[in-house]
Amino acid sequence: MIPFLPAETNPAIILMVAGVLMVFFGPRGRGIIGVIAVALGFLQMYSLGVGPMGDAQMYGITEVAGYEFIPLRLDKLSVVFATIFHIAALVNVIYGWQGATKVEASMGIVYAGSAIGGALAGDLLTLFVFWEIAAISSVFIIWAGGGHAAFKAGMRYLVIQVMSGLLLLAGIALHLVRGGSSEFGAFKLVGEAGVDPVAALILFAFGIKACFPILHTWLQDSYPKASGVGAVMLSAFTTKLAIYALARGFAGTDILIPIGATMTVFPVFFALIENDLRKVLAYSLNNQLGFMVCAIGIGTPLAINGAAAHAFVHITYKALLFMGMGAVLLRTGTTKATDLGGLHKSMPWTTAFTIVGAMSISAFPLFSGFVAKSMITLAAAEEHMLLAWLVLLFASAGVLEHSGIKIPYFAFFAHDRFAPSLRNGAPRPKEAPLSMLIAMGLAAFLCLLVGFYPPVLYGLLPYETDYHAYTLEHVATQMQLLMFAIFAFMLLVRFKLYPPEVRSVNLDVDWFWRVPGRKALMAAVQMTADVWHAIWAALRDITGQVLSGIGAVHRPGGLLARYWTVGYTALTTAAVLAVALLLAFLS
């Protein structure tokens, strides 16, 4: 443990405190604080010790109102996610050293800390706290992108994220009320009595952040609206925290297999026709999450190892691709495929690093994606899930088409949009700043390190494994798939059948609540207003009639304003007294 820190200090707290301190410093100071915070958090986590699955190291256990809080639980599942979250935080700090605004730098470290805290949380209530901090801190990163579009996307993002948190809190409350343990463990979705509504509620909360089908569009809506630096930060944490939560709480839940398989397929078609390359990456992110969700649904040790490994490598190569597009955005002001091309001539390092990311996400042998994705496909094959296996193979080919080829081809090659004849003599865009290149180089190095030497990753995985990625069968199958996909792309381009890059807005399922949904909401608001006005008018009429009746009795000349005879007064008094005596007798 670190000598000057309390023994049970949560690494997440170190990063979050650093994020607050960064507000008071300039760019260089913020960068130094960020690097130190990440290093301290990493050292603190590994100094406490890591337990095997089922025998975690617990720290800071307290009991409040009969509920046990475990703010720090270290086992191999939580630590592999917390490790890559630390690495992603470091890459983000370096990448944004010069370009990150104060809000992005500060909230980015808080955001990373919340993801680490969620991964290390041993109880459900601690998980909820970090779950919500991640939502709140990340929305500021979206807003930092600037402009009305970023603000509106941030508001929509916040609504979805808060909804996920409220569903999670409701599920936790119901779980605790019925006598469940506060410890964050496995839930059983389907029991002898059928589907457990509490487990379903918690699964739904996790599914929102994991971008289950129909619930996925917040990702494509918000991430491309952030700045080049902000999108890199966003790509790493929220969705992978949800993947960790699913692996911890719902491993082996059968329904996740078709959900994950669907997630791998449908984004491929959207990505192929999308013009904004950062939005292509957002759809690609959704596609890659599908592999992890499917593996969690399979639930075997090999599949869980595959999900954890894929989450680890995905964060690195997806961040690398977003960093490449962030550099392009910085130098050209756009990531639209129709406005790019030919950048390899003036941005060679960015081009090379982006190609490394593209080959990694495509799962080429000797790159990180291959050593992780092959574990998931093998897990499906071992469980004789032929349909799932075929879907994963198809999705792997689709990844090569939209991320492995489309991103580098249209951004850096294709037509030279920056030729002097087209730019009217304007200079070509410059290479990315040094800090961005260092961050991209670090991510590319990790992609190659894991690809060339898989044991460096396999040693971190939740279950002991003797898996070997580089067997003749695995390599041959993957290379056949990749070569077929490349050949298909070449034919489609040659015969002009590949979907053209056009300036357009592609509709997704969010159209249903952003167009007819908005109209339905406005109609409901108008109907509510009409009902309220009708009720208010009725109340006003009734009140007027009551007041008129009272006035008729009390006004001058009214019943109570008249002179009464002594006898009538005495008779009335006697009647009132009789009623009072009768009531007293009955009581």
Gist of the model:
The chain crosses the membrane at residues 6-25, 32-49, 77-97, 109-127, 133-151, 158-177, 197-219, 231-249, 255-273, 285-304, 310-330, 351-371, 386-413, 434-455, 475-493, 563-586. The chain contains 23 helices and six strands. It is mainly α and 587 residues long.
What is the strand and helix layout of this fold?
Blueprint: H1 11-21, H2 27-47, E1 57-59, E2 62-64, E3 67-69, E4 72-74, H3 76-95, H4 102-120, H5 124-143, H6 148-177, E5 190-191, E6 194-195, H7 197-209, H8 217-222, H9 228-234, H10 238-249, H11 256-273, H12 277-298, H13 301-332, H14 348-361, H15 368-382, H16 386-412, H17 420-423, H18 434-452, H19 455-458, H20 472-494, H21 511-514, H22 516-554, H23 566-586
Antiparallel strand pairs: 1-4, 2-3, 5-6
Membrane topology: Multi-pass membrane protein
Protein name: Na(+)/H(+) antiporter subunit D
Transmembrane segments: 6-25, 32-49, 77-97, 109-127, 133-151, 158-177, 197-219, 231-249, 255-273, 285-304, 310-330, 351-371, 386-413, 434-455, 475-493, 563-586
